[in-house]
Amino acid sequence: MDVPSSPAAQLSKWDEDEQLLASPARHEWMQDLLSYPSVLIWGAPGAGKSTFAEWLMSERVKAGHKLEILDPHREFGQWDGLDTFGDGMNFNAIDDRLKAFADLVESRYLGRSKKADFNPRPLTVLAEEFTQWAKKCEHSASFFEMSVSDIRKINCHVVYGVEPRYV
After folding, report:
1. Which residue numbers in the chain have pLDDT < 50?
2. Which residues contact 139 (CB under 8 A, 6 or more apart)?
3. C-alpha distances in angstroms, 167 versus 86, 134, 161?
4. Global pTM?
């Protein structure tokens, strides 16, 4: 291990670390997230989860994904132009979409078994405030299980937005 011999040498080491962090490679992991079938965005209130989710959703739209936003706390104007469900804490609407997602997954697997090179349009579902859904949405457990195990091969994706106080 190389130990700096003086405070100036230590400062130089830190400067090098900062240079490394400022390099373009710093953001490569963000691009990698575009192809992941399941993504968890976790952070404290005000940490930038929604801003990051908005970036990720816009990048997925550019990549040809259809989007569905499930957000019981949606603010006025947020997600305009996208299919949104659950406004005003309408957990019944969210639960209906969770069931529809399960039906879609089953349908796509049937299509995969019947057609060579099956390649449906990618779908990304953004599940905001997901940890609040367990007691309010009958289909939340099966949706979560499916989203971390059964969606990769059929062009379905789920992005979860979660605040740690609910975990």
Report:
1. 1-4, 6-11, 20-21, 166-167
2. 95, 98, 99, 102
3. 21, 11, 11
4. 0.79
